[in-house]
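Appendix B, example 12.
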Amino acid sequence: MLFPRSPVGSKKTQLCSFVDIHDLQPGQEWNETIRQQAKTSALLMVRTDHYSIREWTQWEVLEAKKAGMPIVCLSALETGESRGSFLLDHVPTVAYQNHSETSEAFSIIKALNRLIDETLKHALWQNQEVYLEFERHAKNTGHTDNNNRGFDAMPPRLPEPLMLTSFLSEHRKRYPNDNHLWILHPDPPLLPPEHETMVELCILANYSKNNIHLLTPRLFFAAGGTFGHGEPEVKTPNLSIERPLSNFTLSISASASEDLHRLGLTTSHLESVVAETAQLALISGGKISYAGAIGTHSPDLTESVLQVIKKYIEEAQLRQHRQCSQAFYGLTPIHAGHMFNLTVPCTSITSEEVLQKLLSSKTQFASTGKICVINDRGEEVALENTHIWEATSTDRTAEALSSIRKSLYKFAQARLVIGGKTIPKSSDYSDGYIGSIPGIIEETLEALRNRQPVYIAGGFGGAAAVLARSIGLADKIPVPKQTLDAVLHNDMCRDAIDEIRESYRRDVLCLEEEDVKKLATTQRPSEVGGLVVKGLVGHKRTCTNPSD
């Protein structure tokens, strides 16, 4: 075990004074005791140069993995390993920084915190609805059944070949006629090379490739998954493998509403829902369009989207590096087409600093996305040819924003609206919307006029909640009287909502009625993202095959 040598590190971790009641005692059968503790405890693996070639360290990790225990690796390699071990990989890893006493202590604290996180995730996994249904089904099913009708396995960690070796043999003996294999595991999803390897192992156990399903709950529900009444079912393919949203663009309209804190939410929740939806759309092969600039608004949702793109690129490049030889690395596109459009309203470029940040981002994402400016006439112009916006009057800015909002539909095939301001900007209220009507409402109206599906997430209050309530997407959507009055006392806003109500079509969302209600009320980022992508996959399929 590594102990922090600094007084601060020792005090924080309490490792120097910690007494473990499960320490081996004189006379105990150490072999059995170590194995038993590994099967029932969270494991912090301190991986030094010789760790991977020690038999008992391998046994400890093997027992912990077989039991599904939380494991974190603190990588403390100095000169390297003579050989690695597949038994020790496929776990979260924290690097041990030994540059100073402070960095050593920080590394250990970070590893312990990560182990606590993994332990909490493990506990949450075992208390979710799908897992509890799996447990009930397992207890009610006798060993004489020939075909398992529910989920076959729900490991608390990402599945790996080690997990399959024992599971497949036992499962095939227990259910000799089972022709479908359903394995549900926590996020993140397996990358395509990992998924392909796991499928090949399942095929060796005589399962048909088309009947093997390795999914996370998020991907399962986004694919229209249902369970609890016999065999689980999905309506669309595995999003991370089949990429059903290739060449399809979702535009996200979002801003913090005046209701956010009243609903018990913060701007972090808004950032999470935007990031979650963007990530799931990318995993599905789609593209994201967002109108904004970096560092001009709080919360900075533009930065949230770009961070998701950056993380997705890093993971995709890592996957490609593992999959391809050095000779072919980089030759295969990591995504079908561009991953995003960042359409910057000219009114957001208010300083040279903002412009330089955008130019830097355009260079950084040159091969994976497009960053352009929409001028005050709603026309696309190159970022290099734009100028600092001079707000000579509020009316000029309002007219420009209206032209910009009316042009945004050109950059996408569907739209998601979240939050949105409902009170106009004034001398008494500087944080209000600029223009004749709220931006969320104007962008929704323009999308519907151009026959695009609009997904409304009303759980975050604001203009989106007003729209969800006015259209009647759910029975109970709490909207404060102040918010309703601010919107409905505006004649132009009231007329826009009336037109939206008349032209809004639920059928093009390709969601069931309960899903539409849930989307209109939920505050869970994963549910918003999953429901939107589920609808988009169905919508694209309907557009591609109208007879379906």
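The first helix runs from residue 7 to 13. The chain has three domains: 10-127, 129-136+146-242, 249-544.
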